[in-house]
């Protein structure tokens, strides 16, 4: 996965990400930026985005960042995930910036920041996340469904 178009195709192969409407904004080796327009179905009873939505966006973005550095015949899967919600996520959309801290043959260490963005484009940091990603031979997993 080395182009933004391939990253968009990669996201389209993940049914859950496609269902949520996650979009790819930027891609470079070891780094990705994604976004998700907030909809009423993503909110808590308090009007803020559900922490599970933020965690999902961070998790998949960190995995995608690690995937950019993985060999072509390998998949990246989450081995460990930690999130810290810093403040309520309210706004028009969520933007996640994710990067690889340390790539490895078997494990990659990643981090992400999730921002709530208002209608004017102002961003507020709402979550910090870190994950350990396992790099595994693709043959161990079935091929993702086609879009």
From TrEMBL:
Database matches in SUPFAM superfamilies: Thioesterase/thiol ester dehydrase-isomerase (SSF54637)
User: From the record, what ranges are coiled-coil?
Assistant: none
Pfam name, any one: 4HBT
- Which parts of the sequence belong to the Thioesterase domain? 47-119
Q: Give the keywords, sorted.
A: Hydrolase
InterPro entries, alphabetized: ACOT13, HotDog_dom_sf, PAAI_dom, Thioestr_dom
Domain of life (superkingdom): Bacteria
Q: Family assignment?
A: Belongs to the thioesterase PaaI family.
**Can you say what this protein is called?**
PaaI family thioesterase
Q: Which organism is it from?
A: Ideonella paludis
């Amino acid at each position: 996965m080395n182009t933004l178009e391939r990253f968009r195709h990669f996201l389209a192969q993940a049914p859950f990400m496609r269902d949520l409407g996650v979009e790819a904004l930027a891609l470079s080796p070891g780094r990705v930026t994604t976004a998700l327009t907030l909809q009423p179905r993503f909110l808590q009873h308090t009007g803020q985005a559900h922490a599970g939505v933020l965690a999902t966006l961070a998790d998949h973005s960190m995995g995608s960042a690690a995937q950019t550095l993985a060999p072509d015949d390998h998949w990246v899967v989450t081995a460990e995930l930690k999130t810290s919600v810093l403040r309520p996520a309210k706004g028009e959309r969520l933007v996640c910036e994710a990067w690889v801290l340390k790539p490895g043959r078997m494990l990659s260490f990643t981090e992400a920041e999730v921002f709530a963005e208002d209608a004017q484009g102002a961003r507020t940091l709402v979550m910090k996340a870190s994950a350990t990603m396992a790099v595994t031979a693709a043959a161990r997993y079935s091929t993702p469904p086609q879009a």
